């Protein structure tokens, strides 16, 4: 009986473990809008606590502000734009945020956390915003949630899919 119960539990938990990856909330949002975006981190790296979360922002995201998290240090890396652009407030912008990282914690394996950003999403209705995330853990372990589905492939088929926000019309 115990063997059957263990086999049933393994069968039920196996798909859940495979689905446990860094995700984003919301998964859809109006193109061009300002959105509170939460990166959900459901676990560590094979038993090791999470100590770093870094998100890569693609070109064209001109407003990106991280929410501070007690016990974590924030760092923001910027990149120069090929030419200055005017932001929605009428100011010329010559740089954009390339990467935001939270370091510290730790976030134990058995807990989950959200890392929050305020983003102005690209004004591309019907498009998507992919946010590759690297998760660093104690002992030098890391998980890179950066995979993008190929044409005709679904993100659920990937081992380490990057979080994606689908951009809808306003």
UniProtKB/TrEMBL annotation:
<feature type="region of interest" description="Disordered">
    <location>
        <begin position="150"/>
        <end position="170"/>
    </location>
</feature>
<protein>
    <submittedName>
        <fullName>YcnI family protein</fullName>
    </submittedName>
</protein>
<dbReference type="InterPro" id="IPR012533">
    <property type="entry name" value="YcnI-copper_dom"/>
</dbReference>
<dbReference type="Pfam" id="PF07987">
    <property type="entry name" value="DUF1775"/>
</dbReference>
<dbReference type="InterPro" id="IPR038507">
    <property type="entry name" value="YcnI-like_sf"/>
</dbReference>
<keyword id="KW-0732">Signal</keyword>
<feature type="domain" description="YncI copper-binding">
    <location>
        <begin position="21"/>
        <end position="167"/>
    </location>
</feature>
<feature type="signal peptide">
    <location>
        <begin position="1"/>
        <end position="20"/>
    </location>
</feature>
């Amino acid at each position: 009986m115990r063997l059957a119960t263990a086999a049933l539990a393994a069968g039920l938990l196996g798909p859940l473990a495979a689905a446990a990856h860094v995700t984003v909330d919301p998964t859809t949002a109006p193109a061009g809008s300002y959105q509170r975006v939460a990166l959900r981190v459901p676990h560590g790296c094979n038993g090791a606590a999470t100590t770093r979360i870094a998100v890569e922002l693609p070109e064209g995201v001109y407003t990106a502000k991280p929410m501070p998290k007690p016990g974590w240090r924030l760092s923001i890396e910027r990149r120069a734009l090929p030419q200055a652009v005017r932001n929605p407030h009428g100011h010329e912008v010559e740089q954009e945020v390339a990467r935001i990282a939270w370091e510290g914690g730790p976030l134990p394996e058995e807990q989950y956390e959200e890392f929050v950003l305020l983003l102005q999403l690209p004004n591309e209705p019907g498009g998507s915003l992919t946010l590759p995330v690297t998760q660093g853990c104690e002992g030098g372990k890391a998980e890179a949630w950066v995979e993008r589905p190929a044409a005709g492939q679904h993100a659920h088929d990937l081992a380490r899919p990057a979080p994606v926000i689908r951009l809808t019309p306003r």
